[in-house]
Design brief:
Length: 430
């Protein structure tokens, strides 16, 4: 076997491998012995056909393909071992000729990271403030949530709660048949089909209406896509929210121990401040990480980006499943293919990979590690927060793979904390 190597960009090695003639001869012979035991050659018992007859029956190309299927991986593994290459994922192989057998293999190797001078990093945290408009907005939301529905004698408006009898059909098949159905009339509501709520606006109590809604060809529910939905509606009641006055009685009516409107307002301000501080903390961490990554030199093989894209899509699929939506339906409604989704996610995936590699390098430089006790403590915290599923979660984190994954997450958390200390100037005082 002859091997030549060349390092190319993005942490990859290209190997050109040429098999010795005797290696190919041996591989063809082994391929013959495997195939002859599987092939039915007319005039011969299984396993007894001479090689010449077998080749005539199945074709020379089939024998060659069988031989290369075993020979190429064997030679590739030997070449990688002999060259001392540490592959981090399966190589991409291209057979360039068969006489002599020659192939190229692009092997992804460990990424390289050169950090910038992150220890000189200095970033001023953003101030945290709660605007009066935010407080008023939350108070209004609470006011609306606790407001009763009261009947009104006027046409339907968006936001109303109506009671209706409704019959719907598609191509003569029933879609919906409900009496005294309560329905809040909100714009852009997808139930029962998009545009239904808009057809109710302006109707009055006791009024009947028949209407049709044409659904687009790319509508998510494939059985309704491109079809006409017919509806008959009778309005029997219209209600609107009766907003209570903002006073101490309103605060008491919420039932959470508030005695005055001021005490309710104080709680709202406190909650908004906590949320604002949490948001500012997260934004600050992101700013710090970006400031560490930007001057760093990071090179990694494309396969890592593909794996990250796979992870992002899998996470998106899980979220969609919780809403009873398949990824296929989601993509169909957005007129997008899975390949287009992958390309859309590629920039994000590349950033995520670069950030992860830089943080790992910082952790090494700062000698950041976590102990078994810290892992156990994190597992216990999560288990206590998981309620009835706590014991299952403890069992899950008994596995080495799960503990290793948690360890990596904790190291990342401690690394980000260390960088925040450096950037904010806290590191010098600790």
């Amino acid at each position: 076997m002859k091997v030549s190597t060349e390092r190319i960009e993005n942490s990859q090695m290209v190997l050109e491998v040429e098999a010795e003639p005797e290696e190919m001869v041996r591989s063809l012979d082994e391929a013959y012995h495997r195939l002859v035991m599987r092939a039915e050659v007319p005039g011969f018992r299984r396993g007894k056909a001479p090689r010449e007859m077998l080749e005539r029956h199945i074709g020379r190309e089939a024998l060659l393909e069988e031989a290369l299927e075993r020979l190429v991986p064997q030679l590739l593994n030997r070449a990688i071992a002999e060259q001392g290459i540490e592959a981090i994922a399966p190589p991409e192989v291209e057979i360039t000729q068969t006489d002599p057998v020659t192939f190229n293999a692009t092997v992804p190797v460990h990424p390289t990271v050169e950090l910038g001078n992150y220890r000189e990093l200095s970033i001023v945290p953003e101030p945290v403030a709660v605007a009066e408009e935010e407080v008023n907005k939350v108070i209004e939301q609470v006011r609306y949530q606790h407001a009763p529905w009261e009947p009104v004698a006027r046409p339907i408006r968006f936001g109303d709660l109506v009671t209706i009898d409704v019959v719907g059909s598609v191509e003569g098949k029933p879609l919906l048949d409900r009496n005294d159905m309560q329905f809040q009339v909100l714009q852009d509501l997808p139930f029962p089909v998009p545009g239904f709520a808009e057809k109710l606006e302006g109707l009055e109590k006791g009024q009947d209406k028949e209407f049709s809604i044409s659904l687009p060809a790319d509508y998510g529910a494939s059985e309704l896509a491109g079809k006409e939905c017919l509806f008959k509606v009778r309005v029997s009641e219209i209600k609107e929210k009766k907003l209570p006055e903002l006073n101490d009685e309103f605060a008491k009516s919420i039932g959470e121990g508030f005695e005055t409107l001021d005490s309710l307002t104080e709680r709202v301000v406190s909650n908004l401040r906590l949320m604002s501080e949490e948001g500012a903390r997260r934004r600050y961490e992101e700013k710090v990480i970006d400031a560490v990554v930007e001057p760093s030199s990071v090179e990694f093989p494309p396969i890592l980006v593909e794996h990250e894209i796979d992870r992002l899509i899998a996470a998106q699929e899980r979220e969609l499943r919780e809403s009873k939506i398949s990824l296929e339906d989601y993509l169909r409604t957005r007129r997008k293919s899975k390949e287009e989704l992958r390309e859309e996610l590629r920039p994000l995936a590349s950033r995520q990979v670069a950030r992860s590699l830089v943080l790992t390098k910082v952790a090494e430089a700062e000698e950041i590690a976590v102990t078994d006790e810290e892992i156990d403590g994190e597992v216990e915290t999560m288990a206590q927060g998981a309620g009835e599923q706590g014991e299952e979660l403890r069992k899950f984190f008994n596995s080495p793979a799960a503990r290793q994954s948690l360890e990596k997450a904790l190291v990342t958390r401690k690394t980000v904390k260390r960088l925040v200390e450096i950037a904010s100037g806290e590191a010098q005082s600790t």
